[in-house]
Design brief:
Elements: E1 5-12, E2 20-27, E3 33-41, E4 48-50, E5 56-63, E6 66-74, E7 80-89, E8 95-98, E9 104-109, E10 114-121, E11 124-125, E12 130-133, E13 149-154, E14 160-165, E15 170-177, E16 180-188, E17 195-200, E18 206-211, E19 216-222, E20 229-236, E21 247-253, E22 259-265, E23 269-275, E24 281-288, E25 294-299, E26 305-310, E27 315-321, E28 328-336, E29 340-345
């Protein structure tokens, strides 16, 4: 069964119909959904992180007029037991990540422009050990009027936490020692591009940064000694002359490091890039998602399927992945999940 099925958790908004985090079982050959049920209740669990040991899920959390992060334990039947949450007055964050050993969790808050680190104990969150306030603004007066931290994630060596700030166009590296974050390096991307999300190459010291307003992918060399990022390439994900409104969103990479995928809301597509031996990108394909507003997507651990969450049409789409060419083939569409935002597969 493990080889035939993939299991994904879907984080959502809970503004209309959704009640929290959903769990999907997917037949990897046909893309059919064999189970689709609520796994854990939470207000606006818009982003999720599953720990390396597959025991816990951390989610964005909203509790009345407070926001923060919640910790869940994954039960044997796949349901989620709420362990605890760390919340404070203000809007909830938009991104959460955890270290491989699970000892620390970090979050990025778009509304407040803050980065917070939390120690953990047996999966539960402890009081924040570090909180940083981003300062500044960008060239777009409507969307970059102040700092908007959109991503905070650990580097592969886990010596650093990298952040993307949509509002200031900075990608910043912080050293993390005993749960305390200390800034060590900045990369300034193209003004007005709005860096949103980042993924590292699985085999090379290279980071790929998806920008929301420009919908460009920035390729940056990562210096493991200093934590610094240096831009190598910037490549558009939209075709020349594209005139519609668009927001770049998610970015993921194949396990073998040969293909990079990004999603665009407006174009409503997943864009595939081939990765060369130097880590640079070339456009390979653009695949419609059969929905509107592909906020996120993920590749299953074997790389055989790709699941897209289309926020504005309340559906998820399943694609088969040709692992030799990177090409996507539609398997299933119109699978109802209310207000889907984040997709995270568990390992088999």
């Amino acid at each position: 069964m493990a080889n035939k099925e993939a299991i994904a958790y879907i984080g959502t908004y809970t503004k209309v119909e959704s009640e929290g985090i959903y769990r999907l079982h997917i037949d990897k050959k046909t893309g059919e959904i064999t189970q689709n049920k609520l796994a854990g209740k939470m207000d606006n669990p818009t982003y999720l992180k599953i720990t390396e040991n597959q025991k816990y899920i951390y989610s964005v959390a909203k509790d009345g007029d407070k926001g923060g992060v919640a910790a869940f334990k994954i039960q044997e039947d796949g349901s989620l037991e709420l362990l605890n949450q760390e919340v404070k007055a203000g809007n909830p964050p938009c991104y959460v990540d955890s270290s491989r050993d699970g000892d620390y969790v970090v979050s990025a808050n778009y509304h407040l422009g803050t980065i917070i680190a939390y120690p953990t104990h047996k999966g539960a969150l402890k009081e924040a050990s570090s909180e940083l306030q981003h300062i500044g603004k960008g060239v777009n007066p409507e969307r970059q009027e102040k700092a908007h931290a959109h991503f905070a994630g650990f580097t592969p060596d886990e010596k650093y936490v990298i952040t993307c700030d949509f509002g200031t166009d900075f990608v910043t590296t912080y050293a993390i020692k005993n749960g305390v974050l200390e800034k060590v390096s900045d990369l300034k991307v193209k003004a007005g591009s709005g860096p949103r999300n980042l993924v590292f190459h699985p085999k090379a010291s290279i980071a790929y940064i998806m920008t929301e307003m420009a919908a460009d992918v920035v390729v940056a060399a990562y210096d493991e000694a200093s934590g610094a990022l240096t831009e190598m390439q910037s490549i558009p994900s939209l075709p020349a002359g594209f005139e519609g409104e668009n927001k770049g969103s998610a970015i993921h990479i194949s396990n073998d490091g040969r293909f990079l995928y990004v999603s665009n809301r407006g174009q409503d597509a997943v864009v595939t890039f081939a990765i060369d031996d130097e880590g640079k990108l070339s456009l390979a394909a653009t695949t419609p998602v059969e929905g509107v507003g592909p906020r996120d997507f993920d590749l299953d651990p074997t790389g055989e399927i790709l699941l897209v969450s289309n926020e504005n049409t309340n559906n998820v789409t399943v694609f088969g992945v040709n692992q030799e060419t990177g090409a996507l083939t539609l398997l299933q569409k119109d699978i109802h999940v209310p207000e889907p935002v984040c997709v995270k597969f568990i390992s088999e």
